[in-house]
Design a protein that fits this description.
This protein is an all-alpha fold and about 110 residues long. The chain contains seven helices and no strands. α1 (about 1-15) packs across α3 and α2 (about 20-30) crosses α3.
């Protein structure tokens, strides 16, 4: 039960970090908002299927969700979490911004 509570706290933190309410987050990972609430409170156990949905949608590792191990808390991982949610058009736009910024900084040294 204690493990469920810790896992639920991490899921809630992930959802809040994404600035999503329970209804929107549950919709994105294809579970009911009631079930998400039960997970976040530690009342229900996380299935592998739901874990995979959360990992795929958020970009957070299963190690972090299950055990609190966050070896990917660096800037590149944070950026990657954002990029995982972008469409190809948005990714192209972001790439062009990053590339232009890189060239500008490189040439101004």
């Amino acid at each position: 039960m204690q493990d469920n509570i810790k896992i639920g706290e991490r899921i809630r933190k992930i959802r809040e970090d994404l600035n999503m309410n329970r209804e929107k987050f549950s919709e994105m990972i294809d579970i009911s908002d009631v079930f998400l609430g039960q997970l976040e409170r530690g009342e229900r156990s996380l299935s592998v299927k739901t874990l995979i949905k959360i990992v795929n949608y958020t970009g957070f590792s299963s190690d972090f969700i299950l055990f609190g191990i966050d070896e990917s808390n660096d800037t590149i991982s944070k950026i990657n979490r954002i990029l995982c949610k972008c469409s190809n058009n948005v990714l192209d736009y972001i790439y062009n911004l990053i590339h232009a910024s890189y060239i500008f900084v490189k040439n101004s040294k």
